[in-house]
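re the bet — no i am not wrong, look at it urself. input seq straight from the record:
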Amino acid sequence: MNASLRMAVLVSVLGLAACAGMQSRTAYVPEPKAPSIMDNDEAYIAYVERVARRRGIDVVWVNSPRKTAEQVAQETGHQ
């Protein structure tokens, strides 16, 4: 065998070995996390961006709005 053929066989074997070692998580679903006051207020952000888009304004969030304690209490059912 010449050197280039040996190198091609070696690279292909290493490539197949790397693919065989990968795990697939097709059914992986992360656990839902509990609501927190550190979460972004996604509904408010979507509302502001939707109104801004209609008016032709670009929004850049420097400090994105966070959920209030009341919102978190409503989501968790602790009123």
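see?? Residues 9 and 15 are 10 Å apart (CA to CA). told u. also The mean pLDDT is 82. so pay up
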